[in-house]
Input
Amino acid sequence: MTQAEHERHFNDKIAKEIKIEPNDWMPDEYRQTLIRQISQHAHSEVVGMLPEGNWITRAPNLRRKAVLLAKVQDEAGHGLYLYSATETLGADREQTIDDLHTGKAKYSSIFNYPALTWADIGAIGWLVDGAAIMNQVALCRTSYGPYARAMVKICKEESFHQRQGYESLMKLCNGTPQQKAMAQDALNRFWWPALMMFGPNDAESTHSEQSIAWKIKRFTNDELRQSFVDATVPQAEILGLTIPDENLKWNEERGHYDFSEINWDEFWQVVKGNGPCNKERLAARIKAKEEGLWVREAANAFAKKRAMKKSA
Ligand SMILES: [Fe+2]
Ligand SMILES: [Fe+2]
Output
């Protein structure tokens, strides 16, 4: 097939909602966009384990500890699926991880904020996993087959993550005044970073338009952010918590909540590496890779030995 025929065939599939599979022809830019997006997503899952992992030993009881442990393990699984998905596009996993460690690749800005209190763990589940679900449910219909299929299982686990966070906050909000104040404080600190998770406004978003045309993205950043706000406000009301935005108001005409402009300066600062925990998060990942070297070496040596035995 000529290049033009390949392209026509590819565009035809996109138009007909037929998934693109690893061995199919695809435009180079489509492949690179997916590698960037999926590896960024994988890094977010793995770095996202750090703020919560820090609380496993300090969970207030056995049930909470078991739930949090299961949640953090799920995130490791999500990372592994997604690194595998980048490999189906021809990416080298080690290179992908090195790109994270050298700062070339990004991960979600939210994980550069610290989890200071136990209530933050609830707020992360409710808001951060809640925002992730909004994004990821849409990605179940993304045009690249392996990514779309990975999202189906991941979304089921994410909904457990969101609910465990919400349930934990519900307990605090029905507890002592101090516990409720702790929950409010966590919401105050995590609300705006959670809204930033959807990325820059559509007008500023460099990759959006092409990604929508290729059906990698199904909704724009602003559409997803609005859906998140609309879904989350009633949940805050049930908890009896106040969202820290004095301009938050139901707009009858639009059928959506209006809300204040995000502090984009803070967003870009965190993206550029100047958030409260950027250095700490990267240092933790680099240390994990260095300290795990002997495991990888042992596994490789064992695999080699087995292969030798087999060929003998
Ligand atoms: Fe996840
Ligand atoms: Fe999650």
